[in-house]
Inverse folding.
């Protein structure tokens, strides 16, 4: 992780800490002030907000398989086995997540067979992309592939399990917010019985921030540093708009969307740092 990445990550975590502190005291008042279930802005992001996750998850998984195929001769056997296990894990999460996506039908009523075909096409297209970029930029491709699967697949898996354990009620389902509201740091005594009690953390927030992974690709394509920064900035703007939209609809609180973002960005940054620091030990 270069100096610029360290700085950006530190700034992000500092801002996240401020937002979490604000949410600790003002989660409920913020949602009460913003709540508008008829908001076109909110409903647009409700449908489009998860699109990055559902498209980047199959792409990241396929990209890792293509990268492993291209670099098999460079990797030590122990590391190759570990990365194959990671690729299998990503494929498992892909199938598990796709099942939930098809069941939720969030994407403007697109028939579920079309969603399955789109997922398979993205996965299939990513495999040769991994092969091609690995031959041009082997080290960078390996870092990008592993970071993508860990942050996107791993982040989604972790987040969904926290949702069930925490059991925080969504604002829009509350009939008496003053009584039913719970602070983000207080898990429910029982596991969530339905989606109405899966407010913390926000899956849409994690999905929107997954677009930040794309900022790792421009260096592989010999693009300029400014383009990398532009992609990262665009991802941050999109994710910030999504975070606000979730509060407008009463689906999440400020602390929910903040922690969703922190989960993804932390996993991406940690994996990137570990790969850059220990990646050479993986090679023959």
């Amino acid at each position: 992780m270069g100096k610029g990445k360290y700085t950006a990550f530190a700034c992000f975590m500092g801002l996240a800490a401020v937002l979490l502190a604000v949410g600790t005291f003002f989660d409920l008042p913020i949602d009460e002030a913003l709540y508008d279930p008829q908001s076109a802005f909110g409903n647009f992001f409700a449908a489009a907000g998860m699109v990055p996750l559902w498209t980047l998850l199959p792409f990241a998984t396929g990209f890792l398989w293509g990268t492993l195929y291209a670099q098999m001769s460079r990797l030590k056997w122990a590391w190759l086995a570990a990365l194959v296990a990671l690729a299998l894990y990503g494929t498992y999460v892909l199938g598990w997540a796709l099942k939930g996506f098809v069941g939720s039908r969030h994407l403007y009523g697109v028939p579920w067979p079309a969603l399955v075909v789109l997922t398979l096409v993205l996965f299939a297209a990513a495999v040769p992309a991994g092969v091609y970029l690995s031959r041009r930029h082997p080290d960078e491709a390996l870092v990008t592939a592993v970071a993508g699967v860990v942050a996107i697949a791993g982040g989604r898996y972790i987040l969904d399990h926290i949702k069930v354990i925490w059991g925080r009620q969504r604002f829009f389902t509350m009939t008496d917010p003053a009584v039913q509201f719970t602070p983000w740091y207080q898990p429910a005594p029982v596991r969530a019985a339905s989606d109405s009690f899966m407010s913390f953390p926000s899956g849409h927030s994690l999905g929107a921030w997954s677009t930040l992974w794309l900022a790792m690709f421009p260096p592989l394509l010999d693009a300029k540093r400014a383009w990398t920064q532009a992609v990262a900035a665009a991802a941050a703007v999109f994710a910030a708009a999504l975070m606000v939209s979730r509060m407008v609809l009463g689906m999440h609180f400020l602390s929910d969307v903040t922690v969703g973002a922190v989960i993804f960005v932390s996993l991406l940054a940690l994996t990137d740092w570990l790969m850059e620091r220990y990646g050479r030990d993986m090679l023959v």
User: Anything to note?
Assistant: The chain is about 70% helix and 0% strand. The mean pLDDT is 89. Residues 3-275 form one domain. The chain has one domain: 3-275.
